[in-house]
Amino acid sequence: MVERIALETPRLRLRHWHDDDLESLARLCADPEVMRYYPALMSRDDCAALMVRSRLHFVRHGVGLWALERKDSDAFIGYCGLASCALPMPSPTVELLWAVTCDQWGQGLVHEAANAVLQCAFDTLGLDEVVACAAQLNEPARQLLEGLGMRPEQATAFGHPDLVPEHPLHPQLLYRLQRDDWRQ
After folding, report:
1. 3-state DSSP: the chain helix, strand, coil percent, rounded to 5?
2. What is the pLDDT of residue 1?
């Protein structure tokens, strides 16, 4: 078994899931504003499955999706972390994922959490690359990813596999960040 990693930033704990996080996660993933760039809202059962998949990913790989908790209030505010990329890629790749409650937007918390995740990916785990996907019309995610140093590959724009081509979220961009670029 791989050692499970927990992370901290000045304002956040990126911690392992507690069973009582399920209700908060279900509220987060049922919020239409939070999920506006996702193909669909997630049910409570979907959220339970997400927690199980993340726990298994931690057991197998040492990383997964961490629950985000504010240090000043111990409040669960979302998640951020790495998951095996579902896209067909030439080699196994991990993808940066996140979601945060609306009342926490605009405070730089996702950027702070994602920076900690990327540092762990490159410096602790020795990964060569991390990817992220964003709908072309998801300007907040695109700004976040570019602020982290990730760059879109226009040549690898693709359609979301779960959406029909006419859906506004179908056009997606693939972002990449190489370890050497992170260090710069």
Report:
1. 35, 30, 40
2. 43
